[in-house]
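Re: export button greyed out
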Amino acid sequence: MTHRSPPSRTVRVDALSRVEGEGGLDVQIEDGRVSGVQLRIYEPPRFFEAFLRGRHHTEPPDITARICGICPVAYQMSACLAIEDACGVRVDGPLHELRRLLYFGEWIESHGLHVYLLHAPDFMGYPSAIDMAEDHPDLVRRGLAMKKVGNDLLELIGGRAVHPVNVRVGGFYRLPTAAELAPMRERLLVGLDAALETVAWVAGFDFPDLEHHHPYVALEQPDDYAVLGGRIRSTAGLDVPVADFDRAIEETQVPWSTALHAHLLDGDHYLVGPLARFALNRERLHPAALAAAATAGLTGPCRNPFQSIVVRAVELVHAFASAVDVIDAYERPDRPAVDVPARAGVGHGATEAPRGLLYHRYELADDGTILDARIVPPTSQNQSAIEHDLFDFIDDRLADHDDVALAAGIEALVRSYDPCISCATHFLDVRVDRTGSGAP
Amino acid sequence: MSPGDDRRDRRSLVIGVGNDARGDDGAGLAVAGAVRAALGAAGSGGPDADVRELDGEAARLIEAWDGRALVVVVDAATPSAAGGPAGTVHRVEVGDEPLPAWVGGRGTHDVGVADAIRLARVLDRLPDRLVLVTVAGASFAEGDGLSAEVAGALPAAVDAVLAELGPRPAEGRSPCASTSSAR
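Workaround output, generated via the alternate export path:
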């Protein structure tokens, strides 16, 4: 598409829809080249961190679950791991496995939502899932059905899907019986078939050309596609325990956003999320997911952010298949939780939220009072990398894309990171400002 | 793959939508809690209805209301010239008219309710009757607590919900600002 523009103009896209939450994006174009890209994230001024100070060490799972309606389990689990670390307690065995099962429910819900209702319409040529459903109702029904399995799994283990109430530091309040899990196992198997169909479907999309080279950062465990804890690894050689998060990653303030930008200590931006997990842990996927990835042509790290939809579909397969395995091996523990007595100390916890690594740090007094809290969500960590990708994407297309096509591409690219901006922002508004005589 | 399990609950359902950590976005949850208490107090002589709290995400709403005979969704709304100032309570029956602009307006879950209604209509998954009760909020900033305007409007919103579920004592009931049909 060719477009002739006046020397100076402003293109405004009033809203970036189908992104969870709200945020903003500014793009400056001077003399026909991109000169700046700023993702404006209006993070509540660390509201929840301040809210947590002075609370008891048993409260973070309930409080932090409210940060995000889409990934409350991620916040609960990172909080639990960090508090338990501060108190010198490790939860493993069946309780750890039940936590994984709960977490798979959240992955299924979140990825199902993103693949079918948020991102697929971009590749199917529709402005929204509602429009896509007009022509392809069975596709959308399949996505909603998978998502419902995840939702029901959250309710079964977590007590409810929104802000689960059955999670506590040390484990759970009530444990499901094997008989309660059995019907869910059958539904997960049906969901697994749907997830495999999803991989085949999205792998056939026509993806825009874009290749980035950011370091990928994800948790890594020796024998698992890491979800709960592990070491922090990167494709650039980083390999540190979660307790060294601060020694590996720093957050800095930028003038256009109240959310902090995260960088590796060498100054490089980085990306967390499905692409990072897949690059670092692909061989630890469930065999069914690894086979599905290979069938989709993903046999190594994926460097095109638009193809993250395929990786999410592969992770759906992993979540369904792994959840079945957890249920098959389930033996109800004698107690729903281990004791986590308070003590003075600092604890760190990290888990893999659907959107990527989520880090919590708590400092406790000897009576369990929270003296300090720090939460680093995945979207904040990805901000800088997203800006760099947008810079390259827009710059490559200025000459032959009109503003409408450009704005649509920008929206699709931002959606490919599945930014959970509700964790950090109020609204997303895209502005493209073109100035200078060299504008196309 | 079939859409979830096949159990269809036909009882009336009240869904409070919102986030009680975001100021007046908690209005729908507060109303739902009060409705639950009122139904409990009425006992077996009261309406037979379930009450749920959700965050407003479209797919969860559809899953919740699919197959129900009557669903009342209670949500916070953006104050506007059309929707009235903070504390204004509206009742909207989803029908053939376009939804008012304040339904699904900017809150902390602004891609939820309106999209859920449109998507459910396309997929034929709307309940037999769907009524929206909205309360215009004053502030959606982070922090617990409703504004004075919204807190003062809760009784009217609760009464508007109970009126949909069945006959209730008229004592102290305040009328909604508007009643309309929309889609």
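The longest strand of chain A covers residues 345-353. The button fix ships in the next patch.
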